[in-house]
Automatic annotation (TrEMBL):
Keywords: Coiled coil, Metal-binding, Zinc, Zinc-finger. GO terms for cellular component: membrane raft. One of its GO terms (molecular function) is zinc ion binding. Pfam families: zf-RING_2. The keyword Protease does not apply. One of its GO terms (biological process) is innate immune response. The keyword Lipid biosynthesis does not apply. InterPro entries: Znf_RING, Znf_RING/FYVE/PHD. This is RING-type domain-containing protein. PANTHER family: RING-TYPE DOMAIN-CONTAINING PROTEIN, RING-TYPE DOMAIN-CONTAINING PROTEIN-RELATED.
């Protein structure tokens, strides 16, 4: 089936019968992707009259096709040009820059701004695609109703799908020749054309000419086939494993970097609950497409100017990001969000530090409390001791020089250096320093001295 479509798009001579079997094996999964091309062609044929230029002086309005693709509305320049020639009500000329196989467009906005359109009936004509395959549109050449074109961007996607999955080009090619096909391609996929344009898809189309000459030189090397996905779907590691198995990590050492973003988008676009083999084909294709576009800036520019960036899964286009104010807003928003997150983090940190400090504070307070309790009990003890001391002092003072010793402290007589036992009643106290001595010792001491042996103060005479 794919082979058939490919022939319709690119012509009959591309595949040898050998590669044909392989291609059909790969292709069986996109059976559902092809719309009834012929049926559509018939519809266009039957209604072709309305796309054809009118004769001069006709009272009927001129009809022009307005193609709609996403938010773009555009007309084929040559169709507009023919209408301008045919109509006396339109007095401006519009030159067409088409060659025989390439049909350029002009936006509806520009037509409405520059021309009197009151006698023109615009027929809206949405660009329809089944998956990535676009429905053919009749070319804007009168009398050629059986010849068709599709948008260049659709040709691009169909061509690369065939190159990647059908021909398995990047599995077979060696690193040096990886971009060998590009010089031919860039004459078809033009990076300097900022409006959409169509490409002829018949036998004489530029794509077919390039493709044939390229594949004639390419030959028929062999390549590994993707393995079937089990019924429970596949994961990012499985995809990475397949990319390596197919030998693509040799052709594109960076290809594994795209596995995650591409997988995420395939997962977003899938229709069923688990990812199946056809989703694996999509993922493998788009991983390669990313690698190819990053290596060929001119092709990347073509994809961008033909508004195809969003159709490459996981594709990062710097031009889209800088052009799209919504993206700029998104970027601003994400920067703000990051700042807020940072602030939250540092706030959290301060909170935690505070909590830590509070804990430490509490510990310190408890310690303080314990200390002050201890202090209090110490004070009580000091008070008790002081009271005791005062008491004993009073008792001693009361006893004058010869009193019973009531002190519990071990007191030494400074003269004989022997202890004065508690309750000993024969002591004498120095009135100056209050030291105590045995009465006997003191009397003997006073026989030879007049001073206290401790403080040298005058001692009383007996
Ligand atoms: Zn872009
Ligand atoms: Zn003394
Ligand atoms: Zn003594
Ligand atoms: Zn003394």
């Amino acid at each position: 089936m794919l082979h058939k479509i490919f022939i319709e798009v690119f012509g009959e001579n591309i595949h040898s019968s050998q590669s044909r079997a392989k291609t059909e094996g790969v292709a069986s999964f996109y059976l559902a992707c092809s719309l009834p091309v012929k049926v559509l062609g018939t519809i266009i044929d039957e209604n072709l009259e309305m796309f054809s230029p009118r004769h001069k002086n006709s009272n009927e309005p001129i009809t022009l096709r307005v193609f709609e693709d996403g938010d773009q509305q555009f007309l084929m320049r040559s169709e507009v040009s023919n209408a301008l020639i045919a109509s006396s009500t339109l007095n401006k000329r519009l030159d067409s820059e088409d060659d025989k196989y390439e049909f350029h467009t002009i936006s509806l906005e520009e037509i409405q701004k520059n021309f009197d359109t009151k006698n023109i009936e615009f027929i809206h004509y949405p660009i329809l695609r089944a998956k990535h395959r676009a429905n053919p549109i009749s070319i804007p050449i009168p009398g050629k109703s059986d010849e068709f074109c599709i948008l260049a961007i659709d040709t691009f996607f169909q061509y690369f799908k065939e190159l990647i999955l059908g021909v398995q080009y990047y599995q077979k090619v060696d690193g040096d020749n990886i971009n060998a096909i590009f010089p031919a391609l860039k004459t078809i996929f033009k990076s300097d054309c900022t409006t959409p344009y169509f490409l002829f898809i018949g036998d004489r189309g530029a794509v077919r000419r390039v493709v044939i000459s390229f594949f004639e030189n390419f030959g028929g090397a062999s390549a590994k086939e993707l393995r079937k996905v089990e019924t429970d779907g596949f994961t990012v590691p499985f995809l990475k494993n397949e990319l390596a198995y197919l030998g693509l990590t040799t052709t594109f050492p960076e290809i594994l970097d795209y596995a995650e973003v591409v997988y995420a988008e395939v997962d977003k676009h899938k229709k069923e609950s688990v990812l199946r083999t056809c989703d694996l084909f999509d993922a493998v294709e788009h991983c390669q497409l990313n690698c190819v576009l990053e290596r060929l800036p001119e092709l990347k520019k073509f994809v961008h100017s033909q508004k195809g960036c969003h159709r490459v899964y996981g594709f990062k286009c710097e031009d889209c990001n800088s052009e799209n104010p919504e993206n700029q807003e998104d970027q601003k928003l994400s920067i703000l969000e990051k700042e807020i997150a940072d602030l939250k983090m540092s706030y959290q940190k301060v909170l935690e530090e505070n909590q830590q400090k509070t804990l430490e504070n509490q510990e310190l307070q408890q310690k303080n409390l314990r200390l002050s309790v201890k202090n209090e009990s110490n004070e009580v003890q000091i008070k008790q001791l002081t009271e005791k001391l005062t008491h004993s002092k009073l008792a001693i003072d009361d006893g004058n020089y010869s009193i019973p010793c009531t002190s519990q402290l071990k007191i030494q007589c400074l003269i004989c250096e022997k202890p004065i036992p508690p309750g000993h009643d024969q002591i004498i106290k120095c009135p100056m320093c209050k030291r105590r001595f045995h009465s006997k010792c003191a009397i003997n001491w006073l026989k030879e001295h007049q001073q206290c042996p401790a403080c040298n103060g005058e001692l009383p005479k007996f």
